[in-house]
Amino acid sequence: MSAHLHTALTLAAQGVPVLPLRAGKLPFGNCRACADNACGGRPNMKVPGPCACPAPCHAWAAATTDPAVIDAPAWARAWREAAAVAYHPGGAGLSVVDLDDAAAVAWARESLPSTRTVPTTRGEHWIYQGAMQSANDVRPGVDIKSTMAYARWLGPGAGSTAPLPDAVRALAEKEPATVRRAPQTLTAPLRAGQGECRHRTPAYLERGIAMAEQRITEARSAVHATVYRTFLAVLSTHGRCGCLTDTHMQRLFTAAQTKGETSRHCTDAWTNALTTLGL
To answer: Which member of 22, 89, 98, 184 has the greatest number of CB atoms within 10 A?
Structure first.
């Protein structure tokens, strides 16, 4: 049994949903049957489904506590090739404040209540009891990983896990400082005679956004171009109906930034896509 598999089974026994990560801290891509969520997705991705694929597909949504799944043959190759173990904090009822550098750590020590801390390569993970919305760039060098996100398992850390404070929840409620809304508006009136916009159907819109996130997440090269093309595709389908919200835009920005894109490039790509489409 590999060390990563042993760690995963140990965490799962403690109620922590786990998944393997490949090199670059990335989840394993979907299998061919699940590419672009053609399978319908996993139930906890809030898209039509369910997906019965036994492989570790769908990024964070693959995280599980079921030892029969974790140690199944369909996961064997992933564990052999895995570079790390990840977990779904929100699925374990946790939130991780990811402090990316010394300055962020210094801010947390002054601004947040003490809790369990885990050293990272450049900073620390501060782990609180309680789940919340995930958000990137809530302030310089600070991300929040909880629901619909994954974090690397870097060890149990030190200290007692404190309840999730309002100060952390408030960070996600603010517009991230480095992700600015593009100057063009996303809301446009419905065209006369067409009635209610079909994109307002929750399943249709959610599926489109989830597929766009997946396309960005699985990009192995030409990430800049993939981000722009994905933004263009989303806006060409949904941008004229007034159905897109800041939350949808932020989800796409978050997916791009997880791949290493800067907030400036995300804003520029979004603005360029709006301009190309005449929005």
So the answer is: 89
SS (H, E, C) 200-261: HCHHHHHHHHHHHHHHHHCCCCCHHHHHHHHHHHHHHHHCCCCCCCHHHHHHHHHHHHHCCC
Task: Determine the Cα–Cα distance for residues 143 and 37; give it in Å rounded to an integer.
Answer: 26
* Range list of H helices, the chain: 3-13, 67-70, 73-81, 102-111, 166-173, 202-217, 223-238, 246-258, 263-277
pLDDT band at 93 (very low <50, low <70, confident <90, very high): very high
Which of 56, 103, 95 has its CA nearest to residue 75?
Answer: 56
The strand pairing partners of 115, in sequence order, are none
Model-level pTM? 0.64
CB-side neighbour CA atoms (13 Å) of 279: 27
Single-letter amino acid, residue 114: S
Count CB-CB contacts under 10 A for residue 31: 15
Over 90: is that where the pLDDT of 97 sits?
yes
11 close to 91: Cβ distance less than 8 angstroms:
no
**143 closest CA partner among 200, 100, 114:** 100
What tens digit of pLDDT does each residue of 11-60 get?
999 999 999 998 888 888 888 888 767 777 776 565 555 677 888 988 88
Could you tell me the sign of the dihedral formed by the alpha carbons of 233, 237, 239, 245, in that order? Answer: negative
Note whether 147 and 132 are within 8 A (CB).
yes
